[in-house]
Design brief:
Blueprint: E1 5-8, E2 21-24, E3 27-28, E4 39-46, E5 50-59, E6 62-64, E7 78-84, E8 91-97, E9 102-107, E10 113-115, H1 118-122, E11 125-128, E12 135-137, E13 141-150, E14 162-170, E15 179-181, E16 199-203
Parallel strand pairs: 1-16
Antiparallel strand pairs: 2-4, 3-15, 4-5, 5-13, 6-12, 7-8, 7-14, 8-9, 9-10, 11-13, 14-15, 14-16
Length: about 200
């Protein structure tokens, strides 16, 4: 499988969707056991200081039970961004359920993690179409979530020219569990903690 690459344009504000790069989170990496693929599109840009990401999801069952930071949001309707400054650097896993409850950590490896502090988490701006209260929509529907990630939080000085990253959609305890990625993953079972298989984000001037 070939890792994905995306050219990420520079914009002055988040509210310029027509100028943002657009792609899908559509790799079904374990089709025999988990074939379900909700429709997931994302838009991405940056302003020199922050990475802007907007996830747009259409799925058959929407559920959010986690309201406390750094809990298992992957069990809910969840989108994720894993990102690093590049090979040899640690990576960050940023996981959000559809009501913007976030789990975020700095990792040298999957087990060697340091959860982000409350101050660091507050620096990651989040917005969602579904509000912030626990909820369930059994018949499913559409929702979106936006995040703004400061490059400084990743340890960057200035604007990086490239980032290594992958984006995911999952729902471990939804009616139909699923595990989708932007850049394909080769692993025997669901495992998003594969920085060796991240794709590349090329940040435009």
């Amino acid at each position: 499988m070939t890792p994905r690459t995306l050219i990420v344009p520079r914009v002055s504000r988040f509210d310029q969707p027509e100028q943002m790069a657009t792609d899908t989170i559509a790799s079904v990496n374990w089709p025999t056991e988990w074939p379900y693929a909700p429709q997931v599109r994302f838009r991405m840009a940056h302003n020199g200081e922050r990475l802007f990401v907007r996830f747009e999801v259409s799925e058959e069952h929407i559920c959010a039970t986690k309201t406390e930071p750094n809990t298992s949001v992957c069990e809910d309707s969840c989108v994720e961004l894993f990102v690093s400054l590049g090979e040899g650097h640690p990576y960050f896993n940023i996981e959000l359920n559809c009501i913007s409850t976030m789990l975020a950590a700095h990792r040298l490896t999957r087990p060697a993690k340091t959860p982000l502090t409350a101050e660091q988490m507050a620096a990651i701006v989040r917005r969602t179409s579904l509000g912030n209260s626990p909820m369930e929509i059994a018949e499913g529907g559409d929702w979106w979530l936006e995040l703004e990630l400061p490059f400084a939080l990743l340890g960057a000085e200035g604007t990086p020219s490239t980032l290594r990253a992958n984006l995911y959609k999952c729902g471990d305890r939804l009616r139909t569990p699923h595990y989708l990625s932007w850049s394909p993953i080769e692993a025997p079972g669901p495992d998003f903690h594969r920085p060796d298989q991240f794709g590349t984000l090329v940040l435009g001037d």
